[in-house]
Structure formats: C-alpha cells, structure tokens
Specification:
The structure is a single chain. The chain has helices at 16-28, 36-49, 54-57, 62-73, 83-88, 109-121, 133-141, 159-169, 183-194, and strands at 58-59, 78-80, 126-129, 148-151, 173-176. By secondary structure, the protein is an alpha/beta fold. The protein is globular and about 50 Å long.
C-alpha cells in the first residue's frame, strides 16, 4: 500500500483547533528546553495521544533526528508496518507490504512484511513501526542501515523488549520505555519531522528524553 495524500509540497495550513491544542499543551508542560527537532517530536506525540507522560517516556536524541530529518526531506523512502500508520502520515508517500505478506513457522505476517519492504526500498529508508513488535524485531535482524527508526509498537507482549533491543542496537531511533505506543503516536513522530522544513543545527551533546 502507498499513501500518496498531500505530497505536493504546498505549505501546510494549521487549523485554529490545532493551534489552540498546542497552546494548551505548552501551558501545562514546558518543552522549551528541548532542542528543535526533539521538541517537535515530543509535542506532536503528546498532542496525538493527549498524554503528557510521553515527555518522560520517549527516548531519542537530536543528532539522530537531524539525520533522519535530512534524509526524509531529501526523499528517502518511508516504510510503515501497518496501514493505520500509513493513514496517519500526511504529505508523504509510504510503503506498506502487509497485504502481500504471509505468516510461516517462526515468522509473523508483520515480520514478513518488513522483509518484503526491505527488498523493495533497500538501505537508507525511514522505518515507522507503531503496531507490531515482531516487525521491529525483524527490522533489527536485517542490514537495513536505516536513516531513522521510529519504533513505537504497543502491547503487553514483546513491545517493551523490542524497543529495548532497538535502543541497544545503536541505530538512530525514536522509541519509548513503556508498553504504550501505537499507530497514532508513531505517525505523529514522523509528521513532526515532515512539518519541520528548515534543517536545524545538530545538538552539541545529544541527550535522551526519559
């Protein structure tokens, strides 16, 4: 599946309701200390879930986001694990191979979809995983050399462990510590990078949000 909505590059018009939502968010949580892209990701994830705890739960660093942002705006492919993530990503074409995937012994459909997607896009893509821990686990087995992995699968089985493995891999990533996550927050993290057109300077000392 490919999501081709809003790929024209026209300026994004922010609805007044969204403007007011971010105003209220900032009135309840000071995000001014975060570097530019970290702030953008944190705020948009919180906005998508109405959950201020993401300010402590998310883990990323500005250097990874700067590199991912540059690759994204240079046209790198965006791969998603499920169509719900694709539906949440605006203004950019995405790749989702779940409809073509099949499960087998020791291989979930979600994992097979990641294999198929990698065969299609090769190294250097941005990967956005918001549903299946097995999709993230499979990605970590591949030599995908991603520009960025947004790994925010949700669930009580495998989600925490797969995100721990992502952080341990050393790949440039956005993850979170807890079981929560999901398609909406994963697509929000990618949208934060899409909506931030000017390439910011990298932070001198990348830091984690926990």
């Amino acid at each position: 599946m490919k999501n081709t909505a809003n790929t024209t590059g026209s300026a994004r018009v922010v609805h007044p309701i969204e403007q007011e939502s971010f105003r209220r968010l900032r009135s309840r949580l000071d995000t001014s200390h975060f570097p530019p892209l970290m702030r953008a990701v944190v705020e948009r994830v919180i906005h998508s879930a109405a959950d201020l705890d993401y300010a402590r739960d998310l883990v990323t660093d500005e250097e990874s986001l700067v590199r991912g942002h540059a690759a994204l705006h240079a046209g790198a492919p965006v791969v998603v694990d499920v169509e719900m993530v694709a539906a949440g990503i605006t203004r950019r074409e995405t790749v989702c191979r779940l409809k073509d995937a099949k499960s087998a012994a020791g291989l979930t459909r979600s994992a097979h979809a990641i294999r198929l997607a990698y065969e299609q896009v090769g190294p250097g893509a941005l990967w956005v995983i918001g549903c299946a821990p097995t999709a993230l686990e499979e990605l970590l087995l591949l030599d995908a050399r991603p520009a960025l992995v947004i790994g925010l699968p949700v669930g009580f089985v495998g989600a925490v462990e797969s995100k721990e493995a992502l952080r341990a891999s050393g790949l440039p990533a956005v993850s979170n510590v807890s079981e929560k996550g999901g398609s909406a927050v994963a697509s929000a993290a990618l949208n934060a990078l899409l909506y931030h057109p000017a390439a910011p300077a990298a932070a001198e000392r990348p830091e984690e949000i926990k």
